[in-house]
Structures are given as structure tokens and as C-alpha cells.
Amino acid sequence: MPATIANGDAPELAFHNIVDGKPRSSDVKEQVIDPRTEEVGWDVPVASAQDLDDAVDAARRAFKTWRFVSHDEREKILQSVADCLRTNKDVLAQAHMKETGKSFIMASADVEVAALHYEYYKGMTLEDDVQYEDAEVKIVGTYVPIGVTAAISPWNFPLILSSVKVASALATGNCVIIKPSPFTPYAILKFCELVQSVLPPGVFQALHGGADLGERMTLHRGIDQISFTGTVAVGQHILQNCTKTMKKVILEMAGNDAAIICEDADLGKVIPSVAHGCFFHAGQVCVASKRIYVHESLYDKFMELFIEEAKKWSPNNILFAPLSNRPNFERAKSILEDSKKNNHDIVLGGEVKNDEKGFWLPPTIIAKPPEESRIVQEEQFAPITPVMIWSDEDDVIARANLENSGLGASLYTPDLDKARRIAQRLESGSVWINRFERPHFGAYFAGWKLSGFGGELGKRGLYDYCQVQCLHFHK
Ligand code: NAD
Question: Is 252 a catalytic residue?
């Protein structure tokens, strides 16, 4: 276990829920397990039903004025939020690495990327649009905030994914209550506490808790919108809950991305990119390259080079990581066991050292597992990569288009016309051409099929945090 990567000297930290601008403790406390060492972390208070009610009341009060804050003032405030992240980068990164298993450098990068989202959105406005006009009437579409957003986020990129939600909500005049994953509350609670100095009370609040708190949020009458990122099963359940009060919903759910390597691809460029797509953060990325389809003419050479490249993704690589928590570790091991039981050809990795501390799984490559196997059909969310062969374009597109593949895909060919032709037949919200999958803050990011609906990022993402109100001006 690479201690030098892991150990920033973390200070003693105290964590609180943040309600109406103030820190709150609780009689009930939990701790997070450090995925690198399995050491027990700092106490974090579990929010009660009363804390949620109080936070909702505070948000509703704050909304009355926050929604009308001027563009210039809002811009200054969002810049101050970004500055707050940067000023406190070290402490936030130290908290973040303890809960996620990321290296200090990766955790620091997450703080910086989170800050960029506030800067990106700070000056953005959604202009009115004239929807119809004649001699008698002019109809103008306006984009108004929805009210109180509850943001429910996962554990793989907690600070970044929460910041997308918080920045989008604040930029559009909504108030937001964040519930981070119970596996990763530290950096978000600390950030929310620190940033209160630049925000009016009740505008941005944070509550720690698990499924029961999330459940209460999705049923709460004082919450107008749920912005969720996580698994398909939980997203589907949230959608059902939200019908009871007809809340607006954004669902950013899991994917099972296919990476398609065409016969004309340059393997020298492709191999490092595909390996990054598979093994960055140990594959715990919603748009990791989760299934690789290599044209038959390149398969043997690809495998030879890919296995060598994958060996660089050891625990000493600052971009690699352990699995972030025990449930994900156990789930990944069960997928691996399934492959072993079915005699799949494991050409790299596959061994878990049970006598070592930490939730480590080595980069693992499985050659040509059957299409119907778990490792192909399920999202593995781990550094286990199946590599399959293709020869017919229609066939590979059909295999890529699984029900759960609606989030992303990648495609490698120097022929950009061909890339567009194939991409247009892939049923995924984003397709990356000649690069591994990575969302960009300027591009709308939205799932298709089981990967959800609604979306975030880019200017388009802000519309999903608004209600369209049409003003009919009769002349
Ligand atoms: P999860 O669905 O288990 O949990 C996500 C959040 O939902 C957590 O905060 C959790 O406490 C909360 N939750 C759980 N049950 C709930 C309920 N009944 N009601 C309300 N909230 C509830 O997901 P996870 O394991 O934290 O995250 C990993 C998953 O997230 C992967 O499948 C990954 O692909 C997906 N993901 C998607 C995106 C995207 O943008 N589409 C980004 C990152 C991760």
C-alpha cells in the first residue's frame, strides 16, 4: 500500500450538519472507513428528521430573496464560493482523500475542478425568448428558479458531482440542500461550513445521512426538485417517490460504456487512452470504459500492448485508487468470482490479497468473455475490463447498445465521417471520439434509457434547474 501517496498529515477535524447558516451536531454519530487503510475516520453527525424540516424551512425563507439577487451580485458570490474552495484546498483535499481513497494530488484536483464549476456558471444567464408574436400578443418564455432543490450525490466524485448540483442551483436562483453519500460526507460538510461566510443563511445547506434521509427528502412537501446522481435502482425508486408530490427530477444514473476500436485506429495513441478510461480511479467513474470492442484485425496486437499498459496502473500510480468502500469492493469481487467460476480467460490481475489492509483490486483484463456474462452486462465500477472482438459494424453497434449503456461511449478511428456515422447509432448521451470518456463542464451531460433523464453541465444544464414561465403580453 503506497503510504507516501496517501498520507497528507490530516489535522483533527470536526464535522457538522449545516442548517440555516449554522453548524449542528447530533447525538447519533457515524464514521467513515478509510479505503486505503481501513482505519476509522472522524465522527460525523447523522441528521434527524427535525434537521431536515428545519433546513427546508430555512431554504424556503432564503428563497424569497435569493431568487431575486441581481446578476452582478450573484456573480460575485459564486466567485467567492470558488475562492473559498481554493483557499481551503489542503484541508478539503485531506478530508477528501480519507473518505474516497484518492491520492492527495487527485483529491486536490477534485477541489480545483469543483471550483471551476462555480466560475463557469457565475456569469451565466438564461435569456428570455419570444415564443410567439403578432399584432395582438407577444409571448415571452422566461426561466425562473424552481425553489428548493435537494441534491443527492454518490461517493465516487463527491465534491465535483455535488458542486455541479450546487453551482447549477445557485446560479439559477434556487436554494439547495445537499445530502452526500454516507460513505463520503467529510469534504462536502466541511466545504458547506466554510462557505457560509459568503452566502446568506439557508441558501446552501448540507445534511449527512443515508437512504432513510434521502427517502425523506424525496417525499418532503417543502422540496421542489430532486437532483440525483447514483445507481439505476435508487434512481428508479426516487422517481416513483417524486410522483407523489410531482417534484421535478434530474436523474444522472449509471452507465455501461462501450469503447469501440476500429480497424484503422492507431494503437500507439489508443492504448494509453483506453487504459486511462478503464483504470483511472480504479474504474469508479460513471463513464469509465467498461467494455472494450476491438476490431478483429487489431485484437492480438491490442491485447499485447494493453496488458503492458495496464500494469502501469498499480497502487503507486497517483491516478489509481482502492475501491472506495466495502460494499463496492465486495460487489466487484463477486463479479470477478463469477468470471472465475465460468472459466473466463483472465489474462492480467484477478487476484485479491486478502491479508492486506485496504480495498485494493489490481487492474484485471478478461479476454473474450461471452456477451451475456455479468462482466459484460453489468456495470462493474472496478478495474476489471472485458475485451471482445468485432468484425461487422452493425453487429458491434447492436452489442454496444445495451439497455444500461445510455450514459456514454467512446470510439477510436482517424476517419471522422465514420466516427460520426457510428456515433449517431449509439444510444448514449455522450460519445467521445479518439479519447476516453470524460465529461466537460461546457457540455450537457445526460443519460439515455436506464441511465436517466434530465441532465447537467453546459448552459443547457441550467435549464433543468428552472421552470419555464410563459408571459402572454396582450398589447
Ligand atoms: P447509490 O444509488 O447507492 O447512492 C447515491 C445516493 O443516493 C447516496 O447519497 C445514497 O445515500 C442515496 N440513496 C440511497 N437510497 C436512497 C433512497 N431510497 N432515497 C433517496 N436517496 C437514496 O449510488 P452510489 O453507489 O453512491 O454511486 C455509484 C453509482 O453512481 C454508480 O452506478 C455510478 O455509475 C453512478 N454515477 C452516475 C453518474 C452520472 O453522472 N450519471 C456520476 C457518478 C456516479
Answer: yes
Average pLDDT over all residues of the chain: 96
* Amino acid at position 177, single letter: I
Q: Is the pTM of this model over 0.85?
A: yes
Residue range 281-308: mean pLDDT, rounded: 98
| Cell matching residue 304 | 499485447
Residue 10: its pLDDT value, please?
A: 61
Out of 242, 262, 278, 286, pick the active-site residue.
Answer: 286
3-state secondary structure 366-433: EECCCCCCHHHHCCCCCCEEEEEEECCHHHHHHHHCCCCCCCEEEEECCCHHHHHHHHCCCCCCEEEE
Q: Is 104 in the pocket of ligand 1 (CB under 6 A)?
A: no
With a 6 Å cutoff on the Cβ, whether 182 touches ligand 1 is: yes
Q: Tell me which amino acid residue 159 is.
A: L
Q: Cell 442548517 maps to which residue?
A: 19
Task: Tell me: do 290 and 403 sit in the same domain.
Answer: yes
Using CA positions, which residue lies closest to atom 40 of ligand 1?
252
CA dist., res. 203 & res. 212, Å (int): 23
**Is 324 close to ligand 1, i.e. is its CB under 6 Å away?**
no
105-112: long-range pairs with CB below 8 Å, 24+: 105/5, 105/318, 106/281, 106/318, 106/319, 106/321, 107/187, 110/157, 110/159, 110/160, 111/85, 111/86, 111/159, 111/187, 112/85, 112/86
Compute, in angstroms, the gap from residue 106 CA to the centroid of ligand 1.
Answer: 21
Q: How far is the CA of 229 from the centre of ligand 1 (A)?
A: 5
For residue 475, how far is its CA from the centre of ligand 1 (angstroms)? 50
Q: How far apart, in Å, do the first and last CA atoms of the chain sit?
A: 73
Three-class SS state of 24? strand
All three cell numbers of 407, joined, read: 450514459
Cβ of residue 152 lying under 6 Å from some atom of ligand 1: yes
Q: Which domain holds residue 145?
A: 17-253+450-474
Among 3-12, 114-123, 332-341, the minimum mean pLDDT is found in 3-12
Task: State yes or no: pLDDT of 4 exceeds 70.
Answer: no
Same domain, 347 and 240: no
CATH number reported for the structural domain that contains residue 76 in this entry: 3.40.605.10
C-beta of 158 in contact with ligand 1 (< 6 A): no
**Which atom of ligand 1 has the smallest separation from the CA of 451?**
41
Residues 381 and 240 in one domain: no
The residue-averaged pLDDT of 13-31 equals: 97
What is the tally of structural domains in the chain? 2
364 and 465 both lie in a single domain: no
Is residue 242 within 6 Å of ligand 1 at its C-beta?
no
Out of 52, 162, 178, 181, mutate this one to test ligand 1's pocket (max ligand atoms within 8 Å of CB): namely: 181
Q: Which of 75, 99, 252, 379 is catalytic?
A: 252
Segment 397-402 mean pLDDT: 98
Domain assignment of residue 445, yes or no: no
